[in-house]
Amino acid sequence: MNQPETIDQSTSTSNDEPGVSGRVVIIGIFTMAITMTAGLWFYWNMHTAPFRPLQIAIAEVYPKSEPRVQGGQRKIHKETPKILRIVMRVDFNPLEESNSAEIVERCEKLFELSQQHQTLSEYNMLELHYFRMKPEDLADQITLTLAIEDLLAEPSQRSETIDTAIQSAQRKAK
Fold first, then answer.
1. Rounded CA gap, 26 and 45, in Å?
2. In whole angstroms, how large is the CA radius of gyration of the chain?
3. Of 31, 122, 146, 168, which is most buried, counting CB atoms within 10 Å of its CB?
4. Can you give the residue ranges of every domain in the chain?
């Protein structure tokens, strides 16, 4: 009537089988996480270190601008120009023509800071991105791409070059 239950030995697990302990798995996970974090930190530090003095100088002149500076050449297209790229937040709409004078002033100041903290002869272009975040809406942004050789010209010509680039970018944005 009461028959003993039989256990199928082929599907049961035994403590005699070799395996990896939980402690080894946890140590492995932590080791991998620490290695990946260190690798990411090292890569980001090496990638941004040459531009950090310029980025800090911009942040000192324009607080709350959250500047980001990058430079170099696209790895995929080796024949492309070398670009020094500066991205920063502004508190005005960069697309409005009434703010053109403010943009010209910032461009000239960023160019001065770039000359002080970077070797501009290594670059062909200066790319400036200004953006204003709007709550729950798309950002207002403008991108100016300026040839370094044009910026090294006389200050009056520099202002004219910057103003022309601003007008062109504002027309494209509309």
1. 28
2. 28
3. 146
4. 51-173
Q: What is the DSSP string of 84-99?
A: EEEEEE-SS-TTSGGG
> Which single residue is written with the structure tokens 């620490």?
34
What is 120-168 written as a DSSP string? GGG-SEEEEEEEE--TTSPPEEEEEEEEHHHHTS-HHHHHHHHHHHHHH
Model-level pTM?
Answer: 0.76
What confidence tens digit (pLDDT) does each residue in 40-97 have? 999 988 888 899 999 999 999 999 999 999 988 877 767 788 999 999 999 998 988 8
Residue 100 DSSP code: H
Determine contact, residues 158/91, Cβ cutoff 8 Å. Answer: no
Instruction: Tokens for 7, please give them.
Output: 């256990």
**Residue 36: which H helix or E strand, with range?**
helix 22-48
